[in-house]
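Build the 3D complex.
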Amino acid sequence: MSSGTLYDKVWDFHQVKELPGGSTQLFVGLHLIHEVTSPQAFAALNEKKLEVKFPNLTVATVDHIVPTSNQQRPFSDPLAEEMLATLEKNCKSNGIKFHGIGSNSQGVVHVMAPELGLTQPGMTVACGDSHTSTHGAFGAIAFGIGTSQVRDVLASQSLAMKKLKVRRIWVDGSLQKGVYAKDLILHIIRLLGVKGGVGFAYEFAGPAIENLSMEGRMTICNMAIEGGARCGYINPDETTFKYLKGKEYSPKGKEWDKAISWWKSLVSDSEARFDDEIQLDGSSIEPTVTWGITPGQGISIKEKIPNPEILPKNEQQIAKDACKYMDLEPDKPIEGTSIDVCFIGSCTNGRLSDLEEASKVVKDQKVATGIRAFVVPGSQKVAKEAKQKGLDKIFLKAGFEWREPGCSMCLAMNPDKLEGRQISASSSNRNFKGRQGSANGRTLLMSPAMVAAAAINGKVTDVRDFLQD
Amino acid sequence: MDFPKGEIKYISGRSFTIQGDDIDTDRIIPARFLKCVSFSALGEQVFADDREELKGNHPFDLDQNKGANILIVNDNFGCGSSREHAPQALMRWGIRLIVGESFAEIFFGNCLALGIPCLTASKEEITKLQKLVNENTSQIWNFNLKDLSISNQKESFKLKIEEGAYNMFYTGKWDATSQLLDENERINNTVKNLPYLNHFN
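Done.
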């Protein structure tokens, strides 16, 4: 059993009670809600005649269903409008702060909460969305929950949870030019498998992790869940503190100094015990692309699509399914695969630095003929800052569309969808069958810079070819 | 349709299989059906894309499976998103018990919160069980939580479930809200001891 890790320390602070059967009643310090997984929870609360216990510890935004081209109310999709209106009503009647369209702080929940300083080290963060693991980048214990648990958190600010084991993933070296946090996490998921992390919290550590910006760290933790780990985290350090300083909800004045010393005390001890430890070399990782239908089916840009016959036995069937569904031939290089749509955005890669890296590739270039390429900033704040830096103009000039913030084509609960057999180069997090809105649409996951390179060449491209200097 | 309630010790009924590893929540309920403020219509939409592709030949469409309540699946079932819509869709279609090689963690928890036990057995056992189920879809299977077994008239399979979940089904305390609310005083004490809710003092 782990001891002395950040996970253990934060867990202890939030433990309300040991419940019969080995789970723990865990207090939730920050509860984030959005329009998709909250309405049924509020309805259940009303049915049981219960109230929201700590309305000030729940924060709401709207992201999944918002259209990204025209955000005028009412939305043209009546179902989307109903979901937003329901959330507005629930927030209002329960005294919950809502960051709505036009508030300047709306955005994909895992983008807007960190940038407001809501997410802080040492918190427990829960949200009815599996990518809540994102917030672990700050040294929080953050995890996705289902609607019944959303109800429980609203009613009691706590939930029943089993303590996870802790696996430390130590990444040595530093990432090469053209290799980003996204490549690293795709590589890790490939290595450990999509269910390698089930039952674990992942602690990401080591020089390559410490060198990442907060945005890169969020990309890593965001996809911990794609490797089966419900929560992933990184110990807070100067990078974390620098990011948080001066944010709207960050501690101020005297509290700031006290906060830093508490945050530092939470860092995993040098003698901490982990349930499992893994070490890998970050400097050997190349730009990575998925070729299949799970985020674990990734290869380096220079590799060939694996032949199912030579894979380990337990991966063969899903590899065969993937080749058939993706219509990609084994033993052919992934580089050069033609694509139709390019999507830059999502809670994985819709932050300012993602857009900046992609814009470096796009600058003074043109999107290839016949390619539909678009950029969806992760939040209104990201959109504003990107515009201040002139990024929108670079993308527009190259032939990209520039959209309003939302989840967009990551999951197709809004008008942004693949059509038919289209294949996308996407900076999002899931390449499941049908994920991007067409039942037989196809997704290749990669870094935003790689998506940009794919847009320019109209095919899967090694972004390093664009970064010669 | 009656939804699960109270102690869940026995479940009996007809069974069918969904074969394949890593069946994710987007397949169980495609994201476009998530646009709802109530779960009530989800039952009809379970596995919508797979069903459309198979044009009536999907297990959830076959006449022989109508009214069945036990689903036998393979490895890592329910991986992907945390959306409770997936177990909700299965429950509203009529599923009351799922047996498989393994389950994704959030999916397992969501099922638990709805009163749908997810039990596991080895790959060999599941393969054998799926074969028996498929040979005769009209037979009745009996699940007994106490014995951790599922059996037809001739054969019985041993199943596994973690102890916490077992106890919750056995005692009927899988509906967590009331249990959590019992601890009001302890919750308030936890709040008092959290630096970030007390100006870091």
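The first strand of chain A starts at residue 15 and ends at 18.
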